[in-house]
Design brief:
It is globular and about 60 Å long. It is an alpha+beta fold. The strands form three sheets. Strands 1, 3, 4, 6, 12, 13, 14 and 16 form an eight-stranded antiparallel β-sheet that branches. Strands 2, 5, 7, 8, 9, 10, 11 and 15 form an eight-stranded antiparallel β-sheet that branches.
C-alpha cells in the first residue's frame, strides 16, 4: 500500500454551481450498511438497513460502520443523507479497508487515522495515514445535508459532493491499494443519523449493460418468462427482477419511521458483483 497520497482539492468549492449527478450512464446500485461490521454504538434500521444511527443514548467515543459493497476496480457513486444533528468532534464520510477500526473510546477523527482509511470530516478536513489537510468549508451545524461520494477504481480517485455541488478530487492513488475497499461512515456525536440514497454504479460488462436496458422495459417475472430466449439468459435477467420485487414488497410493509427496529431479513448475492450481498 502506498505510504503517501496526493491530496487534490478545488478552490472556492462551496460557490460552485450544481452539476449532473455522476454515473448517469450507469445503472442503479444496491447495497447497505453491514450489520456484522460496525461499532456496538451504531444501530441499523429502515429498508435494507440503509439508515445508521450513532450513539442512540449518549456518546463517549467514536463509532463507525462499513458498507457491504466492495469498491475496488469499479466506478461507484453513493449519497449519504445526514440528519440536522451535525456537531461534535468529527462526523466522517469515505472509504476504508477491513483493517480500519470502527470503534474507539475517544473523540477522534477515526477514518483516516492510519493508512487503512480515507475520510472527510464535517469540519471540511481530509484525513489519511494520520495526516490531514483542509479541503472545503465546514458543514453548517444543525443543518441537514447530503454528502455524495464518487469512487473511480480505474483512475484511483475519490471525489466528494455536497448537496449536489462537486467539491473536487480528494484522494488519488487508490488503484494501488491491494486490500478490498468499502464505504465507511463514522461519528462522535450522539443521536446522529446517516441514510444511504441514490446509489449508482458503472456497468461491469456488455452483458450487464444489456440486462439494464431490458429491465427498463420488463418489470415482472412473467414479462421475462414470455421472452423467446434460452433458459440461462432468462435466469440471468430474473436475478435482478426478483430482487426488485422483494424490495418493493418490503417498502410496502415496513413502517415509515426510521427509528423502528429492522424487520427480519434474508441475504441475497448481488448478481455479477463479486463479494457483494444485499440484506433484505
Amino acid at each position: 500500500m502506498p505510504l503517501q497520497f496526493k491530496f487534490k482539492g478545488m478552490a472556492n468549492q462551496d460557490s460552485r454551481t450544481p452539476i449532473s449527478k455522476p454515473l448517469r450512464s450507469g445503472c442503479d446500485d444496491s447495497w447497505s450498511w453491514n450489520r456484522k461490521d460496525k461499532s456496538h454504538e451504531v444501530r441499523l434500521c429502515g429498508v435494507w438497513l440503509r439508515t445508521a444511527q450513532f450513539h442512540p443514548n449518549w456518546s463517549n467515543g467514536t463509532a463507525g460502520v462499513r458498507g457491504n459493497r466492495v469498491l475496488n476496480s469499479g466506478r461507484y457513486y453513493w449519497e449519504v443523507n445526514v440528519s440536522e444533528r451535525i456537531f461534535g468532534t468529527s462526523m466522517m464520510f469515505g472509504i476504508g479497508t477491513k483493517k480500519a477500526r470502527l470503534h474507539v473510546d475517544a473523540f477522534i477523527n477515526m477514518l483516516g487515522e492510519d493508512d487503512q482509511g480515507w475520510g472527510l470530516s464535517h469540519k471540511g478536513i481530509l484525513w489519511h495515514n494520520g495526516q490531514w489537510r483542509k479541503f472545503t468549508k465546514p458543514f453548517r451545524e444543525n443543518e441537514a445535508i447530503t454528502v455524495g461520494i464518487l469512487f473511480d477504481g480505474p483512475q484511483g480517485t475519490l471525489t466528494y459532493f455536497k448537496d449536489g455541488i462537486c467539491l473536487g478530487v480528494a484522494f488519488s492513488g487508490l488503484h494501488l491499494v491491494d486490500d478490498d475497499l468499502y464505504p465507511v461512515v463514522c461519528s462522535t456525536a450522539a443521536k446522529t443519523e446517516m441514510t444511504l440514497s441514490h446509489m449508482r454504479r458503472d456497468f461491469c460488462n456488455l452483458q450487464d449493460r444489456c440486462r439494464a436496458v431490458i429491465l427498463n422495459i420488463l418489470k415482472t417475472c412473467n414479462d421475462v418468462n414470455k421472452l423467446n430466449l434460452p433458459t440461462t439468459i432468462k435466469s440471468y435477467i430474473l436475478e435482478i427482477v426478483e430482487c426488485q420485487q422483494i424490495v418493493r414488497a418490503r417498502q410496502r410493509n415496513i413502517h415509515s419511521s426510521p427509528y423502528i427496529k429492522a424487520l427480519p431479513y434474508n441475504i441475497l448475492p448481488l448478481p455479477g458483483v463479486k463479494k457483494s450481498f444485499l440484506y433484505v
